[in-house]
Each structure stands twice: as structure tokens, then as C-alpha cells.
Amino acid sequence: MPADLLEGLNPDQLAAVTAEGSALVLAGAGSGKTRVLTTRIAWLVQTARVSPMGILAVTFTNKAAKEMLSRLSAMLPINTRGMWVGTFHGLCNRLLRAHHQDAGLPQLFQILDSADQLAAIKRLLKALNVDTDKYEPRKVQAFINMNKEAGLRAGRVEAWDPYTRRLVEFFAEYDAQCNREGVVDFAELLLRAYELLERNALLREHYQTRFRHILVDEFQDTSKLQYAWLKLLAGPEAALFAVGDDDQSIYAFRGADVGNMATFMRDMGIAEPIKLTQNYRSHATILDAANAVIAQNANRLGKDLWTDAGVGEPIRHYQAMDDREEAGFVVEAIRELYREGLAYADVAVLYRANAQSRAIEHALFTAGLPYRVYGGQRFFERAEIKHALAYLRLIANPEDDNAFLRVVNFPARGVGARTLEGLDAAARQGGMSLWQAACAGGGKNKGLAGFVALVEGMRAEARGLGLAETVEIVLARSSLIEHYKTEKEGEGRIENLNELTNAALAFAADADDQGLAAAAPGTTASAATADDPAQAQLIAFLAHAALEAGEHEAGAAADAVQLMTVHAAKGLEFHTVFITGLEEGLFPHENALTEPDGLEEERRLMYVALTRARRRLFLSHAQQRLLHGQPRYGLASRFLEEIPTALVHSLNLHRRPTPPPPRSTADWGGGKAPSQPSRELPHKIGARVSHPRYGEGVVSGYQGQGAEAEIRVAFPKVGDKWFILDYVKLTPC
Ligand code: ATP
Ligand code: MG
Hints:
Number of helices: 27
Bound molecules: adenosine-5'-triphosphate, magnesium ion
Low-confidence stretches: 515-529, 654-678
Largest sheet: 8 strands, mixed
Strand content: 5-15%
Number of strands: 20
Shape: globular
């Protein structure tokens, strides 16, 4: 019954879920935007306003799409298969697969991730004899992507100076190379999908009639091109439902445009956005801190956020000497939380820059705590996996030059740089792929001939076989595993390679569940229409590998501490959150400070970080940090000062420098001073005590020293409470 679905929603949420026509929900963190969006889909389907086929929903990550689909399956007794739920990239991929001919793409087009794209650009610049000191490949890449993301092809980019004119030439050449090779980069996915609908009236009308409801989460981070694509898809009839929070706009540097909110309201004739003001996620202390920080921004649409979840615990702040000590603090605190009964997976450690994770990972690893890094180096981006994928890509399409170059001499088989240069020249001259040129070479080079025979053998063997079996053929024939056996630290790589078979099995099983050739949300390629289903599944798997955002991890424990950048944490929530590296220059990041809206964007990022925490928040900074091999000395971040001091409890008081103990008698087991308070404990940990207001509880911890010393008691009804030891009246019982 619809009543069940809608139960528990507050009146504003209810209004949003059941809104007629297009609507914009503008609301702060944790106010239930994502929940409202998911519930709205279920409600639309359940009340038969639309069939699942008529729904398209855009989420920010593949993980979010998966979660949304599984929640929907739980809410509704329907098959979610027909729904288009995924990221912009995933959905565009799906569209392009279904209409590859209209989009001018080969049926089995491959997706280049950004490392592949950079390699392709380097190859191009080399072929054009370009001085790469003057035209750095990374800058060329950024130039191309920036323009594509703004919806511009090379022919439409305005260039006033010779330098830019050259860049535009490279852009055009690069696109020509991609077209020749049948590959598509990330930015191209979006632009192609947009052009496809724009140019093809029949297709456009087909989708406009099909999708009655289009829903977008995290709308504040959509770019102009993405918004234009959504509008094309929606046409004049469909209802567009967007939820967002201007205070969480953190992708302006990548072309996201908060202005889309105002444009959207104007385009759809929406007079007022729906506002949600109750936060269901966090305790008041956490929310107060987040509100205080974001209040420092001038450029805001302005929203209120309140909670009735109670005040909660103070925010804890720790100042470390250096990054190692900071990491040690995080590990100790997590151990303590675990002892209290918190699962590792309920804890997130956030940082501003990926490079910061190394010290924390090291400390967690040494302490033997399970952890998982999101959005760092993704499984599918690891070198060994990319090598194996390159063989798979050649099985799918031997004319894939990028894949060819990656493994033609890996493991080494005597194909030298000179041979490759000759091959490249022959291919360009003859207008053919490297593979064709190699075949035409007629075995002149032994190594090259061996490679061609190897790939042909793999292709023949894999014909008609399942995905996981194909992966096994690659692992067995490519000698990758033998190669890594000879490497000093190759063990982990071999483990990852074997994990690739598991990834393929999981992918195939998901696909079977959904009755499709592919299962990743949004990557459910209609490659199922390819003549050979095994081939189609291989292609879908390769697309999944390029688009997937790091959910697959070799040997990852189910219960593991979650490590990620603040950007990657958007939309998520955790019981306990550590925000580390709160130093000027790092967070806010120094690069941002020279940009016009830079500081405000950094502050929004801080707002996102703070609002991920449900119950407990730890903030830390280090006076000295080793980053990219260089020591840096950072002052405490201004964001720390923007949090009212009454909300924050410093953890440093009990760690005031104590004179080192005499060497002869001390055994500190690794040099760490015990963090036990020095005064005598009035109650043992684990002792039962009674409190005048909360009744009976169990002593579960101490912190601080002297007048700052605190005791923590776990009460069956109200949970954990901290008390100042000098004031609290606890009687043993
Ligand atoms: P963010 O801006 O961080 O993406 P959000 O606005 O999307 O946050 P949600 O993630 O949807 O917020 O919700 C935050 C938490 O509040 C979730 O755990 C959700 O289940 C819970 N929640 C939302 N609405 C209600 C409600 N009416 N009753 C109880 N819990 C709710
Ligand atoms: Mg959300």
C-alpha cells in the first residue's frame, strides 16, 4: 500500500515525494533528499503513475545507483530491470551502446579511462613530433576535456593566439584518432550522447515519450552539458525532479554549475523550491558545527537545518606533531571504538587529498586493522589489471591500438621501441590499425609475430566461452603471472590478477540476475544485441571496468574502516567520522586560495565532510607533514577556528609533553606513552555504577587529565555519556 511507503516522512518530504510535475528540492545535508528521491520512484511506480520503464534516475556514483536499485527492489515487488538508474557516464554509455550506429561508433566501442586517454594523447603528440615540454600532454588532455565538457568540438573552440590554435589542432587530431580506433573517453561519452539526441529527432522523440519521470540526485554538481542533456531527454512533457544543496557544490573546478538550479526553475516554471529543514542524520553538536562553518560563506541561497536527535557528544580535536602521530592517533581511537562495540565499517577516515591516505593506511596496516580505500587507486586501474584487461580488449577487438601498445611487449618479448616506431609509421601511412600493420608485416619481427599468434590463439580459444573462462585464458596464456612471480613485490599483483576472475564471475552472475548481458547500473549495455552473447558480455565487462568507481577490492574484508577523500564521501553517512589533515594549505587547499570562488568551495567541502558524521566526529591536524616526499609545516586550518569552541573538546591536554622516562627502567613497547590518566581511577572499566539521572550503567572509558579528566558510562537506554570526573556523582552498585 502506498501508505506504507510514505509512512515516517515529514510533511515537506511527503510534499516532495508526491509533487505533481517538475520540482526542485533544495535542502541541507542529511535532510532526506536521497531518501525522498528513492521513495518518489517507488511511489510513482506503486500508484501506477508510471511503469518502471518510464523512469530515468541519475545518481552520483555507481555505488549509489546500486543502493538505490536494491532499496527499490525491497520497497516494490517489481523487477527494476527496465529502469535506467545510473551515473551520467553510465547512462550515456547505455544510450550509445543501444544506438552506436546513429552515434557513429562501432558496436564494440571501448572506453578510455583518463590514464588511457593520456597515453593516447602522448602517442599522438609523438607521432606529430610535438615538443612535449612546450605542450605538456596533461595540459593538452585538460584542454580537450574542458572543451568537451563545455559541449565544444574542436571546430567551435575560439583560439586567438598561436599556442591555443595548436592545442585546437591537437584536439581535432585526437578526436580523429579516437574515431579511427573506435574508442571513447569519459568526456566524449557525455558529448556524444548529447549530440545523438540533439541531431536525431526520431530518437529524441522516442526517449521523450518513454521517460515520463527523470530524477536527479546531487543536482548542484551537474554541469551545463549534463543539464542540457537532461532537458533534451525530458522534452516538453516529462517531469524533472531534482534534489540538491548549493552548500554542497564541490565540483565547480570540473565545470559543475550551481546556476543550473536557477536555470532549472526558470525553464520548468517552478515558483519555489521545496525545502526540507529537518536533519535526520546527525546529533545537534555536529550539525551546529557544520552550520557555523558554512555560515561564513557569502554566496549562499540560505537554508535552515535543525535536528531533534539530541545534543550528542562533543567534537574531539587532536593536534599531532606530525602525520605519523596523527595516523597513530586515528588507529588508537578506532581500536577503542571497536572495543566499545562499533563495527569498523561504521568508521570513515576522510582526507582532502589522496596522497594523505598513505600514512593512515600504513598505520592501519601495521596495527592489523582491516580497511578499504575508496577512490584511491581503483582495482581496475592497477597496472597488472590494466595489462590483463588489455589482452581482454584485444580478444574483443584486436584493432584497439591502445591495448595493443600496452601489452605488445609486456611481458617482454623482444619488441623494441624502434620496431614499434616503424609499425606506427606503417599503420599511419596505410591508414590501418597497429594490429593490421603487424599482421601485414608477415613475421619480419619474431617478437611481433609471436604476439600476433598469441592473441589469435587466445581469441580462438575464448570463442563462445563465458566471461570468467575468458579471463582465465588470458591469465594462463599471457605469462603475466609468471612475469610477476619474478618481481620482488609481485605477490599482491598476482593476488589481484586472480581476483579478476572473481570480478568477472560476480559480474556475470549479476548479469544473469538481471537477465542482461551486463549488470553494472547504467552500464547495462544493449551489447546484448551483439551477435555473439559471450562477446557482448566481454564488452560490457570492459565498459564496467572503465566506469566502475572502485567498489571491487581484492581480498577486502566485509567489515573494514572506510578511507576516502571528502569528495568521494559525498552523499554517504557514517556513525563516526575522522577528518584529518586540517591544516592551512591542505584543507583549505592552497591551490584553491588563488581561485575566485576557491575558499568558498573549500568551505563547502568542509561542510560536506562535517555532515557525514551521525554520532561522533574527530578532527585532527599535524604540525608537520610529509607530502609527496616533502615536509610541510602547517598552521591549523581556519575551518577549525570557525567551529564554536564550546562544541569542541581537545584531546591534547592529557598528552602534554611528559619528560621521557629514564632509559634503564622504561619499556614503553614501541615508544608510545600510555594514554591512561595518571590519577587513580575511581571506578574500574566494566564496573557497574548508578547515575542520579540516567540510572544504572557500565563504566566504559576515561579520557583527559586533572580537571579535564572525563569518565564515560554506557547506559542501556540513553547510550554512552561522558562526564567530568570532578563533578559527576556515580555510586557503585
Ligand atoms: P546529503 O545531502 O548528505 O546527500 P540527504 O539530504 O540526501 O543528505 P539522506 O541521505 O536521504 O539525506 O538522509 C539522511 C539520513 O536520514 C538517512 O539515514 C535517512 O534514512 C534518514 N531519514 C531521512 N528522512 C527520514 C525520516 N523522515 N525519518 C527518519 N529518518 C529519515
Ligand atoms: Mg543525498
